[in-house]
Amino acid sequence: MDFAIPSHLVDTLAAVDRLLAERIIPAEAAVLEQGFVKAAPLLGDLRAAVQAAGLWGPQIPKDAGGMGLGLVDHALISERIGRSPLGHYAFGCQAPDAGNLEVLHKWGTPEQKARWMAPLARGEIRSCFSMTEPENAGSNPTLLSCTATLDGDHWVVDGHKWFTTGADGAAFAIVMAVTNPEATPHARASMIIVPTDTPGFELVRNIPIMGDAGGGWASHGEIRYHGCRVPKANLLGPQGAGFLIAQERLGPGRIHHCMRWIGICERTFQLMCQRAVSREIAPDKTLASRQIIQAWIAEARAEIDAARLMTLSAAWTIESQGFQAARDQVSLIKFYVADVMMRLIDRAIQVHGALGVTSDTLLAHYYVHERGARIYDGPDEVHKMVVAKRLLAQYGKGGA
Ligand SMILES: Cc1cc2nc3c(=O)[nH]c(=O)nc-3n(C[C@H](O)[C@H](O)[C@H](O)COP(=O)(O)OP(=O)(O)OC[C@H]3O[C@@H](n4cnc5c(N)ncnc54)[C@H](O)[C@@H]3O)c2cc1C
User: Fold this and answer.
1) Average pLDDT over all residues of the chain
2) Which DSSP string corresponds to 217-258?
3) 109 CA distance to ligand 1 centroid (A)?
């Protein structure tokens, strides 16, 4: 087993590190203070620098203008750019556009690819994914009630969604809607492309996340679809295949999230260590001299390394054997890495004392905006239950 960085990636990763250090990290304070809408010109400059360096869209297929990297290679880039809250956006691999692009690439018609995927891949437009509904438990999406009915040559979409990330300013939404109400639960829904300028598309609000409603890509929209009429040709993939496609999208998506979270862990770890060695708590004694802090540092290092290896191993299994072979690994990393990240952020805040709860470091931003990690793409409890059931099934039927 070889744990070395693949030789074909060494120069690429060095170039990524340089861009992060020279351009992206120095822009963080301005972007986070101004917000993603006001800071659009600065973000545009960062994206241009990434494109000029040939590092745009690590996961975007080559035929769509990206680097066309496999999952393990992308994961290695993702952990690096995840060290900045601007990283994934600057490199053109931010959720939910990355997943939407993947779906369009695999399932889109030539017309859908030309109209939606190509400009998305170039970073000219953004998109969103609209599945979760306030009235129904998102952890069981077969309960969804948004409908799309055929009326002549059009689908008419009616529904109420929320937590549609990045809806503010997006050019189109991929909407999960019930098209086949009589079918079995997993065959009832389809994906439909709804341009956000369709009459009846209402962005009700950007939902405040612990007080911060954000804006642009960095926001989560509540949306009402009031009889949105879109051409029949906006069906994405086969009718009734919504859940199948969503499932395919989630596997690699969870690897992307986990590696981004590892990046956040590394940044948080760095902040925690820097504070520990610099904060004097007695004459000639810093926090780093205290055993409880030393234990936190050592535990954090072990947990980050474990989380990273588990995630890379899951990525490798998906790449070499397919998603089915990796489904337990993917569930394990989804709750484990999110938990490692949140505990680490909390401890780093503790080490910083009052400074930790201010916006003078990145920690408060992470605390607010990464808490959702334990909820989206399957809450912790659901992943634990799914894995445990499969493990217990090997010992008998008592766990069913
Ligand atoms: C930051 C963020 C971004 C998001 N982005 C998007 C997006 O872009 N598009 C989109 O469509 N949705 C998005 N979501 C929504 C997300 O997919 C849902 O929040 C998630 O599926 C959980 O659904 P819910 O919130 O309705 O919780 P519920 O289904 O109501 O569950 C509530 C809690 O109950 C517990 N629970 C649920 N099921 C079980 C079970 N079987 N056993 C034990 N306990 C259980 C869990 O603790 C869970 O957190 C986002 C959410 C967040 C927080």
Assistant:
1) 96
2) TB-EEEEEEEEEEEEGGGEESSTT-HHHHHHHHHHHHHHHHH
3) 31
CB atoms within 10 A of CB 329: 20
- Name the residue among 89, 94, 28 with its Cα closest to residue 361: 28
**Distance (Å) from CA 328 to ligand 1 centroid:** 19
> Which residue, among 226, 127, 195, has the nearest Cα to 167 in the 3D structure?
127
Distance 379 CA to ligand 1 centre (A): 6
Residue 132's nearest CA partner among 398, 307, 377 is 377
| Cα 298–chain centre separation | 28
Q: How confident is the model at residue 399 (pLDDT cuts 50, 70, 90)?
A: low
Strands (E), the chain: 127-130, 147-151, 154-165, 172-178, 189-195, 201-206, 220-231, 235-236, 280-282, 285-286
Cα 163 to middle of ligand 1, angstroms: 10
* Whole-angstrom distance, CA of residue 387 vs CA of residue 66: 34
- SS3 state of residue 281: strand
The one-letter amino acid at 301: R
Residue listed under structure tokens 């610099």: 278
* Ligand 1, atom 39: closest residue by C-alpha: 382
Ligand 1 pocket (Cβ < 6 Å) reads 96, 129-132, 137-139, 163-165, 220, 372, 375-376, 379, 381-382, 385
Please write the tens of the pLDDT for every residue from 30-59. Answer: 999 999 999 999 999 999 999 999 999 999
Q: Give me the amino acid identity at 121.
A: A
The answer to whether the CB of 25 falls within 8 A of the CB of 85 is no
Ligand 1 pocket: which of 163, 165, 260, 380 to mutate (most atoms within 8 A of CB): 163
Q: Are 141 and 94 in contact (CB under 8 A)?
A: no
Which residues face 191 on adjacent strands? 176, 236
Residue 398 has pLDDT above 90, yes or no: no
Query: What domains are defined for the chain?
Result: 7-108 (1.10.540.10), 127-236 (2.40.110.10), 244-393 (1.20.140.10)
**What is the per-residue pLDDT across 350-375, written as a single tens digit (0 to 9) for each?**
999 999 999 999 999 999 999 999 99
Question: What does the alpha-carbon distance between residue 230 and residue 251 come to, in Å, rounded to a whole number?
Answer: 29
The whole-angstrom separation of Cα 174 and Cα 309 is 33
Name the pTM for this structure.
Answer: 0.97
